[in-house]
Amino acid sequence: MLLFLTRKVGAALSLVVVVASITFFMLYASGSDPVANLLGQSATAAQIETRRAELGLDRPVLTQFLEWWGHLLRGDLGTSWTNRQPVMATLLTRVPVTLSLAIAATVVAAVVGTALGTLAARFRGVVDVVLQLVVVVGFALPAFWFAVLLSQTFAIRLGWFPAVGYTPLVESPAAWLSSITLPVVALAAGVTASIAQQVRNSVIEVERRDFVRALRSRGIGPGRILVAHTLRNAAPAALTVLSLQFIGLLGGAIIIENIYALPGIGALAISATNVGDVPVVMGIVLVTVVIVVVVNLVLDLLQGLLNPKARTR
């Protein structure tokens, strides 16, 4: 297990280093001039050169790259080109919003998807057909359209939830839950469908195995078999789907945040991209990569605990 953990952590760190380096060269060494994009078409050549010197962009790219990594290793993501604020300080106010949204959607998708998939596998016939229909709708439903529909129905017409805005968890847990309920439901719908389909297929496949038949012949109850054996053997496949879908959850969060006016990294990414604020864009990319890598690392470790065969891969 220690070797498995070391291998996974090493691969995760290597991935972060590679993606961070590629991101730097894509943004700083691209064909376009980020300073010209930042200042706009009305800027003169002299103004552009002056601003480039102020930002240190007149130095060799390799020098900038090594200096950027030096700052990064100290936890410094640089300074915003537009408001002169530290990028790390800006992200620390935004990341918790996006992270709470993505994690809550992941938990909801895992719990609801597992429940639906198990029901579909255990109760064949009408129940299975209905749940399969729900899965198909979940696959086909665009997240942004579903988010607008939820807002129009449950926020604007019924007034059960706020249409826009976000309340931090530390200020009021009840208000926080109310502010993220609709965004979480909209974000989790598609992933829930994927997990439900995977769990259904896995449960059906596991229940056909010889060891399950042997447990039944020994008089062990179906509930105990389901919880202690069937779901445990079906869980690794569901975790694989969840790890693959988490990237999509973060991408979908950018759209959902703008629909519900949540102050997460989604709105920040759009505004920073529009004005050409490269340090902020790089900080967002790096933080997003770290979040995805950490979450997938945790899911891989859980899979290793549930499935010893995964430790040898």
Automatic annotation (TrEMBL):
Family annotation (Pfam families): BPD_transp_1 (PF00528), BPD_transp_1_N (PF19300)
Stretches that traverse the bilayer: 12-29, 97-121, 133-154, 174-196, 234-260, 280-302
Domain ABC transmembrane type-1: 95-303
Keyword Metal-binding among UniProt keywords: no
Keywords of this entry: Cell membrane, Membrane, Transmembrane, Transmembrane helix, Transport
SUPFAM superfamilies (UniProt xref): MetI-like
Localisation per UniProt entry: Cell membrane
Record's bilayer topology term: Multi-pass membrane protein
Matching PROSITE patterns: ABC_TM1 (PS50928)
Any one of the GO CC terms: plasma membrane
Top-level lineage group: Bacteria
Primary localization: membrane
Gene Ontology BP term (one): transmembrane transport
Family the UniProt entry places it in: Belongs to the binding-protein-dependent transport system permease family.
Record protein name field: ABC transporter permease
Source species: Nocardioides bruguierae
Phylogenetic placement of the source organism: Bacteria, Bacillati, Actinomycetota, Actinomycetes, Propionibacteriales
